[in-house]
Amino acid sequence: xDGLWAPFVEFAFMRRALVASLALGLIAGPIGVLLVMRxxxxxxxxxxxxxxxxxxxxxxxxxxxxPALGLGAFVSALAVxxxxxxxxxxxxxxxxxxxxxxxxxxxxxxxxxxxxxxxSVDLMHLLFGSILAVDTQALVLVVGAVTAALVLLAxxxxxxxxxxxxxxxxxxxxxxxxxxxxxxxLTVVLTFVASFQTLGTLMAVGLLMLPAxxxxxWSRDIPTSCVLASLFAMSSGFIGLLLSYHVxxxxxxxIVLTAGAIYLVSLLIGSHxxxxxxxxxxxxxxxx
Amino acid sequence: MTTAFELNDVTIAYHGHPAVHHxxxxxxTGTLTAVVGPNGAGKSTLLGAMAxxxxxxxxxxxxxxxxxEPGAVAFLSQLSAINADFPLRVLEVVxxxxxxxxxxxxxxxxxxxxxxENALAQVGLAxxxxxxVDELSVxxxxxxxxxxxxxxxxxAILLDEPFSALDxxxxxxxxxxVSGWHLQGRxxxxxxxxLDMVRxxxxxxxxxxxxxxxxGPTQQALTAxxxxxxxxxxxAWVDSASWCDAPALEHVHTERAA
Lengths: 288, 258
Prior knowledge:
The complex is a heterodimer.
Chain A (H helix, E strand, L loop, with lengths): L5 H5 L1 H26 L3 H22 L3 H25 L4 H23 L2 H9 L7 H30 L10 H41 L5 H25 L4 H19 L5 H5 L9
Helix pairs in contact in A: 2-3, 2-7, 2-8, 2-9, 3-4, 3-5, 3-8, 4-5, 4-8, 6-8, 7-8, 8-9, 8-10, 9-10
Chain B lengths: L2 E12 L2 E12 L3 E5 L6 H8 L7 E6 L9 E4 L13 H6 L3 H4 L8 H12 L15 H15 L3 E5 L7 H16 L3 E5 L3 H7 L2 E6 L1 E7 H4 L2 H9 L9 E2 L8 E2 L5
Parallel strand pairs in B: 3-7, 3-8, 5-6, 6-7
Antiparallel strand pairs in B: 1-2, 1-4, 8-9, 10-11
Helix pairs in contact in B: 4-5, 5-6
């Protein structure tokens, strides 16, 4: 039993890692569920990669300085998200196509920029993060970005749900529907800026999407799914960190693998549309 | 009688090809008008433009002063434009009709909740508040969307194919709601395909096939000759069509080439 909390009592770096992953899990729930519900599961992946070139520029200019990396990441991910939605609304291209185009460019550009100066160790750091190396300054940055994303999300929540259901409806009351979309992308970007330093651009998507998809196996209702997804993501952080400590696994992949395990279990036994439900004899039905 | 919507030489083109071509006329306040025409005739495009959702290539649509407030012209898109599998609660969907009052952040309670319950009862869905919309039938969903229109309480209401794919009893109930709006003096415009329904329930009709064919009291608008003319118009794009004379924005003139 001691093994459940001893690492966090004993080591400050484990405590900081835990706080960072709990904060990330909290925002990952609602953002992930909204991405899934709006059929943008892969858009999350695209934006995660769009973080890279900005972070690389930050790295080239200031080395492994977290504020510089964070600012660069924020700017480039936001630019890709806005460019993609600008192209989508002004040409016949669908948003997923333009997002795919821009994130592939961003990824290649990012890897090129890092290799100009850095070593492959630095590249690995950007791609996979190092949650165990989170210091107090990084923790403040993570928690600040998560807080900003949560506040923004609360402000646009109703607009987002309404326009997801009936895209034309809000247009009769002005342009709020359009802005909500951009602000939602901003919250997604903030989430990735917060998470790429700890989990890296590749692993961050895992913590965002896997708990959200798992939650959909348990509930159809959106608020319930969001709460469940947050709980799944936060427990993935906790369990993943313990695994990484006790079995000496790399921390980021351990967290995402835990989220993956929760997803697979949910897929099987989920109470809303788990696979096992479909195997049970389903002759029982209610009176008409 | 005052004019609710005045259409002046309205032309709306996609990639230069007009979907709505030089339509002029007026919807008087308090009238109940059906917009009729073959598929691809530009009915939905015209309705969208009246709702302010489409940009005109040429001409203008003037609204009465009372209709210039945000939300004063309620618009119901075709069911196919709605993501019915997005699991909102029925209560939340109907509450969207109160957007001008509560916006993105206001708490909806008290009188507003009563209004929502009354609207749901009026469309025959009392007690459905907490159901998720993705488990409703098409008919029930359309009833919910009508309840949303009822709480929106707009002086003008635009309906795009509101009765497509609905069974007889749902159609009858929702037609009663539309007739009620007419009696209350609201301006209602509906895109429809069922000519018997139009003749029975809609005093005025606008018949179009990209161009205006006829517009007026339903009896005179829907004569056999007008209907034949509407169905004979070729609605396919003709790439070699000449450009329309002196357009504000260039669009192809299909009339002569067709």
